[in-house]
Amino acid sequence: MKKILVTLLAIATLTISVSAQQRREMKGHQKKHHRGMMAKELNFSEDQKKQAKAFGEDYRKKMQELNKLDNITVKEMRERKQTLRKEQKSKMESLLTAEQKTKMAQLKADRKLKAAERQVKHLDRMKTKLGLSDDQVVKMKVQRENTHAKMKTIRENQSLTLDQKKQEMMTLKSEAKEQHKKILTEEQLKKMEEMRKNHGNRNRTKK
What we know:
Helix content is 89%, strand content 0%. With 207 residues, it is an all-alpha fold.
């Protein structure tokens, strides 16, 4: 029995480790894809591409070296990483011409507009599927905007550790559910939960 438990624990640990590695790799691929798209949209020259690649490799190397240090505090580690991120952002911005900086600002504005449009469409779907009143739609919109603003504050709070940020995000999620209970009827809450489950099942099927 003890051997079985040890084996199961080992399998569980390995599964968690592999899953974490897959998430890191996926995040890395997403960042690489984003940089590639940005370079294409801003029409980078070959020289800019080479410099951007060199900056990226130097940044990753410094981050890896920093992660190996075990004789500094968590606060110092966080501050050093923040400094490296700022340096990397400054270096990347120094590559851009005035025209590219203007275009990048426009691209960011366009992405924010598209995000807002997706939110409106999402609320419209919820209104139809849940049978929301106009008053409920307004309240849901305000609640969502407040939650997103709080999430942004938590993400940008450099005084918090990663675990503390996760905990605050979980608390914020619970608060959002409580707010939903004040806005939606019991029947609407059940429908919303079903929609979430169906959405989750579809995502798992795609994988």
